[in-house]
Design goal:
This protein is an all-alpha fold. The protein is built from three helices and no strands. Helix 2 packs antiparallel against helix 3.
């Protein structure tokens, strides 16, 4: 007998999803602000508002990492994967996505 998993019976908790996305965005905003504070004299080639792009893109990458974290843990619990493995996988996905957000946000300015 094959056991079926019904995803319709397990609703997505939007409050928890939003909370994880906000935490990821706050982590991104905090780290990019700390990184940008140490820029004393920016290169004139970057333009006046060069700092806006990283302040938008990096928190978005953090929010996307929080989104991935929620769904990795959500589906891992539904299919019976070990929770510690799911946490490590979601942490790895968050770090890689966050790094790519940093690169994309700082490309053409501080990231040559």
């Amino acid at each position: 007998m094959i056991q079926r998993i019904e995803f319709k019976n397990h609703p997505i908790h939007l409050f928890t999803l939003g909370k994880r996305m906000l935490v990821g965005a706050w982590i991104g905003l905090l780290l990019i602000c700390v990184f940008l504070i140490f820029v004393n004299e920016p290169n004139p080639e970057w333009g006046k508002l060069w700092w806006v792009r990283p302040l938008v893109i990096v928190p978005m990458a953090g929010a996307a990492g929080g989104f991935c974290n929620y769904f990795i843990l959500y589906f891992a619990s539904k299919i019976g994967v070990n929770k510690s493995f799911a946490i490590l996988l979601s942490l790895l996905v968050f770090i890689i996505g966050f790094y790519l957000g940093f690169v994309l946000g700082l490309a053409g300015t501080m990231w040559h």
